[in-house]
Design a protein that fits this description.
Elements lengths: L4 E8 L18 H17 L10 E6 L5 H12 L6 H6 L3 H11 L5 E4 L5 H14 L5 E8 L8 E8 L5
Parallel strand pairs: 2-3, 2-4
Antiparallel strand pairs: 1-5, 4-5
Length: 168
């Protein structure tokens, strides 16, 4: 097997970055803006402007052990206090919502997979991407690895675009 090639890579934050820009339709948490910002940075490095042309078969593999901590804690505290949870929290509580948002913005038309890693996050992401590439489900895979800091700050994210990789 030929391993996939790294076509582009990005991180958030990089020198000079503040918090990721707000993302319309997502509230309270930096998780979703962070995913969108790092994905945009990675895909822009490879392709320039969005969207990609149709038929690109680019998968998204979103990997996070803790998911959107800030939103989960907000919902927990609101329910515990007998409050009413806003409807956007139901939408954004599923990690596929931000992966789908990135796919729609960029015109990516491959599968979307969300993982909670059981081992080293990047190795788990690459293993999933290899399955998608080798099985012919995608020609490229955008891996987004994200963990929010427990103190409520945005945290860190890495995006890697992989391509190639074939079975003999």
């Amino acid at each position: 097997m030929t391993p996939p090639t790294v076509l582009a890579e990005a991180r958030w934050p990089e020198p000079g970055d503040g918090p990721p820009p707000p993302l319309p339709g997502f509230v309270h948490s930096a998780f979703h803006p962070l995913v969108a910002a790092v994905a945009d940075r990675c895909l822009t490095r490879r392709y320039g402007a969005r969207p990609r042309p149709a038929g690109n078969r680019t998968a998204i593999v979103l990997v996070s052990a803790s998911g959107d901590r800030a939103s989960a804690e907000h919902v927990r505290a609101t329910v515990a206090a007998g409050g009413r949870v806003g409807p956007l929290f139901f939408f954004q509580s599923v990690p596929n919502s931000i992966a789908g948002h990135v796919a729609a913005r960029w015109g990516l038309d491959g599968p979307v997979v969300c993982l909670s890693p059981t081992g080293e996050p990047r190795a788990d992401a690459v293993a999933e991407a290899e399955l998608l590439l080798y099985d012919g489900d995608a020609d490229e895979a955008l891996l987004v690895l994200i963990e929010q800091a427990p103190d409520g700050t945005p945290g860190e994210a890495t995006a890697v675009l992989l391509g190639g990789g074939r079975r003999p």
